[in-house]
Amino acid sequence: MFIGHYAAAFASKQIDDRPSLGWTFAACQLPDLLWPIFCLVGMEHFRIAPGDTAFTPLAFDYYPWSHSLVMDVVWGLVFGFIYLARSGNRRGAWLMVALVVSHWFLDWVTHRPDLPLTLTEEHLEGLGLWRSVAGTLAVETLLYAGSVWLYLRSTVPLDRVGRVGAWTIVGVLGAIYLANVFSPPPPNTIAVSISALALWAFIPAAAWVDRHRSRRPAIAARDQGE
Q: Tens of pLDDT along 41-90?
């Protein structure tokens, strides 16, 4: 899953709007942000294997440090603590934990049984939605479109950055998603890992755009009343 993770980031602003979109982007994609680093240093590995699933040519052979359920819980707690230390927002901190852990469960829907529960990889899980390109596109697109709609509906741009920037991020993420689906297999695993590091750039970009948007007055008043 790719844009489905960002769907969780956008939608989570309905739970607590104090964490910036930069924080929620980082939390929802933390396993995928760590994964290329671990692959480049040899801690994890994967193969280019066209046909492994219909949706992606990547075969994930060993990635428990970034994608096992137990480590995603650990990473979530660490990330939540960092956010709490910086913000003092306990509710937001638990939201960060939940977003990090949500990565495993969303991947569980799409991956074939290659997701480890623990570092030992004795039990591998996955429902295998990636076996269907049409099914994967439908599920992720609906999640993404719905969450973006929620975010844009509940916030208003303060200036051109907030207006154009939000649509730019939404569009670029969508374009990357479609490019990955319909492009030929990558040349090698090094190229995949290096290109995946570009996901880090969306964190400051999302935080910058989010600072230029504000909660709609009616929604803010409603939340304060609750």
A: 999 999 999 999 999 999 999 999 999 999 999 999 999 999 999 999 99
Spell 80-109 as b/e; 16+ CB within 10 A means b: beebbeeeebeebbbbbbbbbbbbbebbbb
Residues contacting residue 196 through CB under 8 Å, at least 6 positions apart: 32, 35, 36
* Helix (H/G/I), strand (E/B), else coil: 181: helix
Looking only at the bridges linking them, the beta strands covering 58-62 and 45-48 are antiparallel
The whole-angstrom separation of Cα 76 and Cα 72 is 6
Dist CA 78 CA 97 (whole Å): 8
Whole-model pTM over 0.70:
yes
Write down the H helix ranges in the chain. 3-11, 21-28, 30-40, 64-67, 69-87, 90-110, 133-154, 160-182, 189-196, 202-211, 217-225
Sorted by sequence, the CB contacts under 8 Å of residue 181 that are 6+ apart come out as 55, 133, 137
